[in-house]
Design brief:
The protein is an alpha+beta fold and about 260 residues long. The chain folds into three domains: about 40 residues; about 110 residues, Protein of unknown function (DUF541), domain 1 (Translation Initiation Factor IF3, 2-Layer Sandwich); about 100 residues, Alpha-Beta Plaits, CATH 3.30.70. The strands form three sheets. It has a four-stranded antiparallel sheet with strand order 3-4-2-5. A three-stranded antiparallel sheet has the order 1-9-6. The chain has a two-stranded antiparallel sheet with strand order 7-8. Strand 3 and strand 4 form a beta hairpin.
Length: about 260
Amino acid sequence: MHPSFFMSFFPTWRENPIFTVLLSLVCFALILFLGVKTSVLDKPTPIEHTIFVEGVGKATMSPDIAVMTFGISSTSKSVSEAQKQNTALMNTLIEKIKAAGVVGADLQTKDYSAYEKLEWNPLTQKSESTGWVVSQALAVKIRDVQKISVIVEIAGQNGSTSISGPTFTVDDQSTYEATAREKALAEAKLKAETIARTLGLKIDRVVSYSEYKEDASGPIFYADMKEGMGGGGAPSAPSIQTGTQELRLHSTVTYLLSN
């Protein structure tokens, strides 16, 4: 509908100049009011009306996965012969570990290397070859931590020249995180309420939230694995203790204060 239709209901400047001036002032005031109202609605919460508090929640986790690394090193006069020997030993070790219940997806070859071993000969004043060394390592993810001792023993009896680990982890930390988060938020809220009460104010609502998790760690204990390595003699299975790990989650909460 054309604007002239509405204008026909109001007198013109010549017909009633006072009414026209008053109408213009009313329109200007309305525009000013709407502009201020919009500005207030869009205005962010002043920082002086908020407080920032942090809460820390803890949860004790029981590791359910261990990672061990077993290395095999072979020496021979030629690199091909050293590789052949090393491959045979590693393949046997892999089959033995699989037979103990570890699936192929949890085995990973790493750090394969081959180099010529040189030694200084004082008579010839030259570095002379004493053979080739081929090495490789196998990382094993053990999902049944009760089998760690057995697998370590298998490695010692099947050519392993180096054993490292275990590194313990928790497969699914979501339940522990939820517990730690609940504790952290409770601590943060208690701090905020104490501060607000001291200031004679009260908590209105949460303005923002953030969190971060510390790396879980815990004591790991295991027996000396040297005795009996390579078969024969005293039992070579060490007593592995998984221990516990502590998850620490920090929650930072911004609260809006009110009277």
